[in-house]
Amino acid sequence: MTALFALATSLLWGMADFGGGALARRTPALTVVVLSQSVAVVVLGTVVAATGAWSEASPHLWFAVAAGLVGPVAMLAFHRALALGPMGVVSPLGSLGVAVPVTVGLVLGERPGPARFTGILVTVAGVVLAGGPQLRGAPVQRRAVVLTLVAAFGFGAVMTLIAEASTTLTGLFPALFVQRVTNVAAGGPALWASVRRGVPALPPQGLPRSMLPALAFVGLADVAANGTYSIAARHGPVTVAAVLASLYPVVTALAARGFLSERLRAVQAAGAGLALVGTLLLATG
Question: Taking the mean position of all CA atoms in its chain, how far away is CA 267?
Answer without folding.
Answer: 22
